Amino acid sequence: MASGFGVTGKKGRCYDVWMDFSDCMSHCSMPAECTSRRDDYFECLHHRKEYSRMNAINKERERQAFGDKNNKPHDSSAHH
Fold first, then answer.
1. How many C-beta neighbours within 10 Å does residue 19 have?
2. Which residue intervals are annotated with compositional bias (Basic and acidic residues) in the record (predicted)?
3. Average confidence (pLDDT) over 46-59
4. Distances (CA, A) of 72 to 28, 55, 60, 68
5. Nearest 5°: CA angle at 57, between 53 and 60?
6. What pLDDT sits at residue 43?
7. Helices (H), 7-47
8. What are phi and psi of 5, to 5 degrees?
9. Which helix (H) or strand (E) holds 57?
10. What's the rounded Cα separation, in Å, for the pair 22 and 32?
11. Which residues contact 1 (CB under 8 A, 6 or more apart)?
12. Residue 54 scores a pLDDT above 50
């Protein structure tokens, strides 16, 4: 990552975010000041928040398309 070159030989997609985080770490008095930049860098690398949001949207679309069958309260009188 330190070289700045990605797999295609051009600048890596997260290089600018890394440089921002690295700059913050080199100038801050406490590492906790750079937490948001670290989170941005990890999100750029792994896309966890993006995938989580996409999954939530897809689940809601499926729920709306197929009805609310799974989220209805159970009828307790139907048992034994």
1. 14
2. 58-80
3. 94
4. 52, 21, 15, 6
5. 140
6. 95
7. 15-27, 35-46
8. -90, 135
9. helix 48-66
10. 13
11. 12, 14, 15, 18
12. yes
